[in-house]
Structure formats: C-alpha cells, structure tokens
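ingest -> fold -> write
write: protein_1
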Amino acid sequence: MPVTVAVYGKLQQSLWEGRINFATDTIKAMLLASYTVGSTQDSAQYLSDVVTAGVGVEATGGGSTGYTAGGQTLTGKTVTYTAANSWGVQRANSTAYTVGDVVRPASANGYVYQATTGGTSGGSVPTWPTTIGATVTDGGVTWANMGRGVLVVDANDPSWTTGNPGTLTASHMLVFKDTGTPSTSPVILYWDLGGSQVASNGGAFTPQLDSTEGLLVQFTG
C-alpha cells in the first residue's frame, strides 16, 4: 500500500523535553479507521489530541478483526545515521524512481538527494546542485538536495491478521509512545495509507516499512 509520512510538529518539543526515548520506550502503531488531520499535524502533542478528541477514530478491534485496541508494540527498533558519502543507494542512468527515493551521486559529493517528482532518470549524469534545497531535472525525475546525511528511524513491520471470516479496515497508521494514559502519550508521526485499506478472511494488514527509508527519514544539513 502506498503511504505518505507526516511528522507531528510537536515531536521535536517532546524530544527536547525528554518525553520520548525511541530505543527504550514502548512505541506503538495504532490503526485509524478515519482521520481528519486538520490542524492536528501542528497542534497535537499527545494521543488524546488525536483519538480522544475525535479527529482520529481508531479501527475496530477485537474478535475476527485481528486488531487489538490501543495498537501494536513496535519491535526491532533502530536509529541509524549515515553520512551522505556513505549512503548505499547510488543514482543510476535510465532507472525508474518514485517520489521519496533517496540517492547519492555515483561520484559522491557530500550530499544526498530525494526525488520530488518520480519518473525515469536520464541517460547521463546530471549536474548535482550543492546548495541544500536546490533541485535538478534528471530525465523524468526531479531531485532535491536534502543535506549532508540521513537519519533513518526503523522497526519491524507491524501486522494484523484477520480471522476467516473477518475484516479490518484502516486509512491511517499513527505511531506514538504509550505511557498507558492518552493525555501523556506523545504522538510521533502518522502514515496516510492512501484511503481506506481492507484486509479480510485470513489476510494480513501490513503497512510496509521500506527497507531503506524505514519508518521515518530525516536529513541533516
């Protein structure tokens, strides 16, 4: 399922206030049947600002849905920083790229680039800009200079298996630190799953964490 990742604006506040330790805290993925994001991307700091406030409605849990209310604890959590020149994915000629793909030039120049327009790269190497934020057209791809390194936050894929018969429907996945109390559980990010997604009759509902981009990618200047 295609996803769009959005980080809550107050994540940095929660991190600086010492409210989240991704490595050691209980971090959960919660499925939402619906979510009217509105201003919550900037204003929400806690789970209560999203779910208890009613702008996000948790997926139906219990029974044959295979979903447990409150979400699933993420396992295999990692946080990895890679300098641009060591980033393992090199841009290649005449290759299909999608929006969000991250590459470095085959001749490393100290920067990484992210596709802002998907398409097929050109047959020759583009002139890579060395100003952060600058873009370059490469065949059908537009690359933006994102910085000098990449921080990847990752975890094992969460998955819920439905009963047979049984149905699980969700449009968003919300990631948060679970303190046991919604009003003190900081939200981290959400994935827009591209509309209502359905798993049924023994099928698995598995939002895919990309092998190179993980749960979240952040760039450093």
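write: protein_2
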Amino acid sequence: MMQKLKKTAVSLSTLGLVAAVTLSGESLVSAQENSNQGIEAQEQDSEELHAGAFKKITAAEALEDKDVKAAMNQVYDLFPETESYEINAYENVVSEENYDKYVIRLKDDGENFFHFAVDAKTGDVSYTIQSLEASEVRSYPNAEKGIDEIHAAHPELKSYEITGVNVVDNFIKDFSRYNITFSDNGSNQSMTFGIDAKTGEIIHSPENNE
C-alpha cells in the first residue's frame, strides 16, 4: 500500500488528474468533498443528494462522458482491484460553472472504496478519496509521525485500535490528508483525526463518534 500511495501521488498528477478545488488545512473537507459527504449521508435516498445538487445516474450514463471514461480507465490502470467494485455515479444538476459535473464512487462489498469527481470546466479529476489498510497505516509517508503526535496529545488513545484510514488528495494544491479513526474495543467510542500526509502534523481536531 505504501507503493500504491506513492503511485497515486505521482501517477495521477502525471496523467493529468489535477484538482480544481481548494482544500484548506482548517476545514475537514473541500466544497467538492462536501458534495461527496452529502452523497454518503443521503445514500439511502440517492435521488435527493446534497440539497438536490446531484442526482443518481447509471454507470453507463456516466461513462458516456469522455472525461469520466478516461478517468475511470486511469483509476483501473493504477488500481486494478477497483475493476470489481460497484460503480455509483452522480451528476450535478444545479450548478452551471466551477463545479464537479460528476461524482463517481467505487466500492467493494466491504470497506474498500475509491471516490473521485470530474470538474466541469477542465474535465480533470478535482479530488480523490481512497480507503487505505488500517493495519498498514504506519507504513504510509508521515503517518507514523502524526500518530505519535496524536498519542502524545491523547495518551488514552494508545489503547485504542486504528479501525479506519482514508486519504484525500488535492493535486492542484499538492495536498494530501489522512483521516484516521481510533476506536475503543471496550466501548462504542471512536475519534477521528486529520493528518497532513506531507508533514505528519495534526490538522483537524478529533471528532467523537459514539
């Protein structure tokens, strides 16, 4: 996974999958990622996404767009395992400029996923969100430094298990962010932190999930 993570950072930008959005260190997600978050939050009713901005369409309809098809082929080339993932596609039906025209969510029957969005203006991928192996998190660049900082600030979390990791990539800002969830085996409590993948610094206060 460490090789794949490096491959993502280098190969996607080389292939022209550049982001058209700003991801600030203070915010958990960008405007486009909020759209994706809206998709996840309303997955049960996919016809009413993100305040009506997106509608669910078929994978075949999405792949009729040459930019979506090109992006999908590049993802498959880099991560062949995603070819077996289920495709959920969403089209923006509200905004007319400076927006993501499609959000594509690839997911297997477990916890693995790869999400990306296609910018309407450039046809490039604006952002990606990829699940990573929680058991291998310390092998990812600068993740161990961030985890050590978290443990130093919250020593009680040393007994917690890392149960979820994903990485958000914003290529135009050359910015990558890990979201790491720590869970207590003895209770339902968990905490999620954001870590700058380039520096290992904590960039998001913990969220309590119970």
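write: annotation protein_2
The first strand starts at residue 54 and ends at 57.
Residues 2-14 form the longest helix (13 residues).
pipeline exit 0
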